[in-house]
TrEMBL record:
Coiled coil start-end: none
Primary residence: other
Function according to Swiss-Prot or TrEMBL: Catalyzes the hydrolysis of glycosphingolipids and participates in their degradation in the lysosome.
Cellular component terms per the entry's GO annotation: extracellular region; lysosome; membrane
A GO molecular-function annotation: alpha-galactosidase activity
Family indicated by similarity: Belongs to the glycosyl hydrolase 27 family.
Protein name: Alpha-galactosidase
InterPro entries, sorted: Aldolase_TIM, GH, Glyco_hydro_27, Glyco_hydro_27/36_CS, Glyco_hydro_b, Melibiase/NAGA_C
């Protein structure tokens, strides 16, 4: 087995809420008080997460992304929150978040500046780790902008991992290491998993079908090098943000994102406005059966097993000899299409041997009954939609 980061964390993919994508680098609190990155925003999200079933569904991390900092470090060289937008500092916010039964995530960068130009952690790894621990932070998303050479990048990711472990506080470590390596060299995932709890492979997710589609294409294309490394303690992050409940995805595309992120054993971090979310989006994001697939204790990542014209068939081995199966229709024209496949395709022919029960999880939950291993299944799927089954 591949050695996972020795902090005992992320036994299943972490779940939570992240400000990046929906709130970007909003620093104008005077002009747009409800849309800026501020203590107020996180307090309001924490309230919603606790009161409206999000925490109970498994979304436990409330994560601050870039742009939380003051433009300079303090006199002792420590990072500090922007005093106007975070008047109580991060410690007070962490205490509040913890009082709601949630955990707080924060953001920094391996280089000398963050992607948005705020102070980075280069030259301050140990100090920043101690600072975050003293504030009561539970997760660090560590970005890779402005890091100089690839050797410096790798060294920075390793050092921050060790520095976090040395604090004695349990802090989930979310890296962007392979994303910044990839243009130049093939990442060594065995090494990355020794230092990180999850690691990002691909571009920022956008609130659009094109973005979701490109992430799925990239994942299928590279599955031979990334699927085998995922497991308890370390996960591939196809850019974590679920953009369900925003503006860019149709209903079927939202179902596809939810289903496929569960198949990929991806961290589930929503980036949306929980103060204004439709009942449908909430219902999808809190779907217990889909979350159970994502959080399956076996911790195997799913993969594409068949591509046939516009259809893709994916499977994910689950505990109890079950499988999650996704049928994705990539066609963007016309109406629903039928896809028929033999159950012998699944689990190298073993998933349904000699018989199995099939249950549809998405777009709606219903039992399909018992099949034998040479049966075929015919699945009707809307354009850009997905049918998620449990076999």
């Amino acid at each position: 087995a591949v050695m996972a980061l020795d902090n005992g964390l992320a036994r299943t993919p972490p779940m939570g809420w992240l400000h990046w994508e929906r709130f970007l680098c909003g620093t104008d609190c005077a002009g747009h008080p409800s849309r800026c990155v501020s203590e107020q925003l996180f307090v309001e999200m924490a309230d919603r997460m606790a009161a409206e079933g999000w925490r109970d569904a498994g979304y436990e991390f409330l994560c601050i992304d870039d742009c939380w900092m003051a433009p300079t470090r303090d006199g002792q060289g420590r990072l500090r929150a922007d005093p106007k937008r975070f008047p109580g500092g991060i410690r007070r916010l962490a205490d509040y978040v913890h009082s709601k039964g949630l955990k707080l995530g924060i953001y920094s960068d391996v280089g000398n500046k963050t992607c948005a130009g705020f102070p980075g952690s280069y030259g301050h790894y140990e100090l920043d780790a101690q600072t975050f621990a003293s504030w009561g932070v539970d997760l660090l998303k560590f970005d890779g902008c402005n890091s100089g050479s690839l050797e410096q990048l790798a060294e920075g990711y390793r050092r921050m991992s060790l520095a976090l472990n040395k604090t004695g506080r349990s802090i989930v470590y979310a890296c962007e290491w392979p994303f910044y390596l990839r243009p130049v060299q093939q990442p060594n995932y065995t090494e990355i998993k020794q230092y990180c709890n999850h690691w990002r492979n691909f571009y920022d997710v956008y609130d659009s079908w094109n973005s979701i589609k490109s992430i799925l294409e990239w994942t299928a294309l590279h599955q031979d090098s990334i699927v085998k490394i995922a497991g308890p303690g370390g996960w591939n992050d196809p850019d974590m943000a679920l953009v369900i409940g925003n503006f860019g995805l149709s209903w079927d595309q939202s179902v596809t994102q939810m289903a496929m992120w569960a198949i990929m054993a991806a961290p589930l971090f929503m980036s949306n406005d929980l103060r204004h979310i439709s009942p449908e989006a909430k219902c999808l994001l809190q779907n217990k059966e889909v979350i159970a697939i994502n959080q399956d204790p076996l911790g195997r990542q799913g993969y594409q097993i068949l591509k046939d014209k516009t259809f893709e068939l994916w499977e994910r081995p689950l505990s109890g000899r079950a499988y999650a199966v996704a049928v994705l229709n990539q066609q963007q024209i016309g109406g629903p299409q039928n896809f028929t496949f033999s159950l012998t395709f699944l689990g190298n022919g073993l998933a349904c041997n000699p018989a199995c029960s099939v249950r549809q999880v998405l777009p709606a939950s219903r039992d399909w009954g018992i099949y034998n291993w040479i049966s075929s299944l015919s699945v009707e799927v809307n354009p850009t939609g997905t049918v998620l089954l449990k076999v």
